[in-house]
Design a protein that fits this description.
Elements lengths: L1 H14 L11 E7 L5 E8 L2 E9 L6 E3 L8 E6 L5 E7 L4 E7 L8 E3 L2 H27 L7 H27 L4 H8 L13 H13 L10 H4 L4 H10 L6 H14 L4 H16 L7 H11 L10 H14 L12 E3 L5 E3 L7 E7 L4 H21 L1 E7 L4 H11 L4 E8 L4 H5 L6 E5 L5 E4 L3 H11 L6
Parallel strand pairs: 1-7, 11-12, 12-13
Antiparallel strand pairs: 1-4, 2-3, 2-5, 5-6, 7-8, 9-10, 9-13, 11-14, 14-15
Helix pairs in contact: 2-3, 3-4, 8-10, 9-10, 10-11, 12-15
Length: 471
Amino acid sequence: MKIIYYPFLILCLTLLGIPVTAQQSAKITIDLKGLNDSLVYLASYGGDKQFVVDTAVRTENGSYVFRPGKLLDHGMYIFVDASKKRLFDFIIGQEQTFTITGNTAQLPTSLISTKSTENHLLFDYMRFLAEKQKQQAALRERLNKHDPKSDSAKFLKNQTEELNNQVQSHINSLISQHKGTFFADFLKAMQEPELPIIEGNTRADTLARYKAYKDHFWDNIDLSDDRLIRTPVVHPKVEQYLNRLTSPLPDSLIAAVDLLLNKTGNSYEAFKYLMWYLTIKYEGSEIMGYDAIFVHLVDTWYNDPRMDWMNTGVKQNLIDRAKTLKPLLIGKPAPEMILFDTLMQPHSLHNIQAKYTLIYFWDPDCGHCKKETPLLRDFYKNNKETFNLEVYAVCMDTSWKDMKTYIRKNETSWINVNGFYSMTPDFRELYDVHSSPVMFLLDEKKTIIAKRLLSDQMETYIRQREQMPKK
């Protein structure tokens, strides 16, 4: 009777216009022996960050029930105790009403999931991995007792390799058997890509293996899958790709950044994560030339409709910042300055006849300048003729008296001008200088070739550029 009644009831409700809906809110019950905290947390991954999603208080029977009042985004989540200690990870996918039981003394091997197929698979995999790690540790301990060249050591190494093969075979089987599940996609994302076999030990062979690894690096990771952004897997991979697999030259990094953003496809969350991470990474970078990457991000990607997540004011500030930096990028012509010296004579930056021109922004009251100016003076005296170098020193103080006193004290014989007595726009806006000391190095065409380095670094840079040996 019950088997017939239930579908009939649904049919009646549908005919009457009463909606029959699926689960509309998550309910996750955690029952962990040994945990007596009055309050616990449910957290989610978001790139390199973790965010609190919900809290739960201890019930009378000792369990914790998370009821966020909505269905949660699919991904990997974290169960966190009152001291903010991460106890274990688990999956939230299609099934969002389930129970996890376990024992704090045996995490994660004691975890059991009810009514969540993917967590059942995840916890079984964790137990399998823990057992294999025990076996591997035992083999390693035995191996350490033998001469590395002995037959016993060779035998144990073969056993270790066989154990690794068993683990990899099991992982491949899980991915194949459960294709289409988040568990399988997550497991796959943690695997190294399969690469073509390249024999040989020449430099060309090594470069070919590196190129193959980089070309196939993202084979197992779908960056358009929002769920993977909510795991601890993607962010370290992004960092590895940018910091270790990509040439540190700005042009190479710009190409890598574009590749990553293009791989997000139509994903909103992946694009949001990458854009914020890359903006912070390169807008505030102290590495010379990396401001070009930030400017490229703004010029190329900030008009994407998926940028609607960013606060309008913050976004406009970043756009304005990129506009300020763009004329000052390495390779750009230095903005012209026509400033007056202490005799009220104008001096044009662009009219200086020298192979190298060093713009030096300084202030009489600047503590760092008091240390840097003597170093630059000595560098200038020793290398003016060698490098065909001139210094265009811009005082960032309106006081002629303080400026003249400083020049006499430091015996600076280069071109000394005051930034506030000018025939050209405000030097602070032109060169984005709001502190001191700051230096820009120009070539004979007055193109910016280096910036924000100090005297000792400038000498090293010019010597490398001129292919001169170090002193």
